Amino acid sequence: MPFIEELINGTLDQEKFKFYIAQDSLYLADFGRALSLVAARAHTTDHALEFMRFAEGAIVVEHALHAGYFQQLGIQKSTTISPACQHYTRYLLSTAALDQVEVAMAGLLPCFWIYKEVGDYIYKQPQKENNPYQEWINTYAGEEFAGIVKRAINICDEAATKCTPAQQQEMTDAFVTACKLEWMFWDSAWRMEKWPV
Ligand SMILES: Cc1ncc(C[n+]2csc(CCO)c2C)c(N)n1
């Protein structure tokens, strides 16, 4: 996507990045809530603990990255959630609250997995010196993050073994929907998406 290509070569319009970070901080607050809901609804204490840790990571670790950019780039906290961000966060929260917990877990997985794939892809490209977005890049290409993603994938695989084929299909559908919403989130940042009315 152009947003990611320009992030890699450091030419991304700062206003687009600021829009992305401001919306992403709204996303993260709700993502943390969705993770906490799934922790509360998990069937095993192991899974509950893992989701509690993920929720903490989403709020504390990601917040630290954001806080740096908020200060450095003078980003204003956005009070208006973009259409794509609202669609994605409401989808995750309603899935976490109302759907079978395994389906909610599958819906939360692309957030981890796609950032890992994007992080690895970026890291394989020639690195630009003095890229203003380097700190963001480093967050998602590291070993520590890879370990977290592996754990999230393993939990979903383990949870799926206890599901019927129809439930597994629901898990796949939730995963695919969330992948599309990840795509829409990048795209909306690139377009600095506004409400049409
Ligand atoms: C739209 C959007 N999707 C995924 C992430 C990445 N992410 C957010 S929380 C979390 C798990 C705990 O750190 C991960 C990988 C993001 N920042 N913004």
From TrEMBL:
Reaction catalysed by this enzyme: thiamine + H2O = 5-(2-hydroxyethyl)-4-methylthiazole + 4-amino-5-hydroxymethyl-2-methylpyrimidine + H(+); 4-amino-5-aminomethyl-2-methylpyrimidine + H2O = 4-amino-5-hydroxymethyl-2-methylpyrimidine + NH4(+)
InterPro entries (alphabetical): Haem_Oase-like_multi-hlx, Thiaminase-2/PQQC, Thiaminase_II, Thiamine_Salvage_TenA
Domain called Thiaminase-2/PQQC: residue spans: 2-191
One example GO MF annotation: thiaminase activity
Pathway(s) it belongs to: Cofactor biosynthesis; thiamine diphosphate biosynthesis
Cellular component GO terms, alphabetical: cytosol
Tree of life domain: Bacteria
GO biological process: thiamine biosynthetic process; thiamine diphosphate biosynthetic process
Keyword line: Hydrolase, Thiamine biosynthesis
Alphabetized Gene3D superfamilies for the sequence: Heme oxygenase-like
Record EC number: 3.5.99.2
Top-level EC class: hydrolase
Family: Belongs to the TenA family.
Record's function text: Catalyzes an amino-pyrimidine hydrolysis reaction at the C5' of the pyrimidine moiety of thiamine compounds, a reaction that is part of a thiamine salvage pathway.
Annotated PANTHER family: BIFUNCTIONAL TH2 PROTEIN, SI:CH1073-67J19.1-RELATED
Full protein name: Aminopyrimidine aminohydrolase
